[in-house]
Design a protein that fits this description.
S-adenosyl-L-methionine; WH-like_DNA-bd_sf; COMT_dimerisation; 8 helices; mainly alpha; globular; 2 strands; two-stranded antiparallel sheet; COMT-like; about 50% helix; Arc Repressor Mutant, subunit A
Length: about 140
């Protein structure tokens, strides 16, 4: 592949990353609010399955473990969580998740370093996020 094509591929990858940039903060917000990071971090060397975590947060949606698994897998791909494959009781492989070092800054515990969780949740609150649409109403939009 010529250098120009390699550069074009990399630029295309960057464009895709930009288009998906909102996903990680929204997923992190979705697991911070019910205390999922706190649950995973409560046993530092333990790994929990999405089903176990769903039980701790009293999720009512029967599909919660599947949805949670997808969110946690994304966070693991970004090294926010650790992920291992283990054989379940049914003999099928399943993902289990553990705390990575950054989790100590994402928990709401009083001990240890200061948590950025409250700041993150404030910055991603619905009211704050909706305020970002106002520049469009101030004439910055072409439509």
């Amino acid at each position: 592949m010529p250098v120009q094509e390699d550069e074009e591929v990399e630029i295309g990858k960057l464009a895709i990353r930009l288009a998906n940039a909102v996903v990680m903060p929204m997923v992190l917000k979705s697991v911070l609010e019910p205390g999922v990071i706190d649950i995973i971090s409560s046993a530092p060397d333990a790994y929990l399955s999405p089903s176990e975590i769903s039980g701790w947060i009293s999720a009512e949606n029967p599909d919660a473990p599947v949805l949670l698994d997808r969110m946690l897998a994304l966070l693991a791909s970004l090294s926010i969580l650790k992920c291992e494959l283990r054989t379940g009781e049914d003999g099928e492989p399943k993902r289990v998740y553990g705390a990575s070092p950054i989790c100590k800054f994402l928990t709401r515990k009083d001990d240890g370093p200061g948590s950025v969780s409250p700041l993150f949740l404030l910055r991603h609150d619905k009211v704050i996020m909706e305020s970002w649409s106002f520049p469009k109403e101030d004439g910055f939009s072409s439509s």
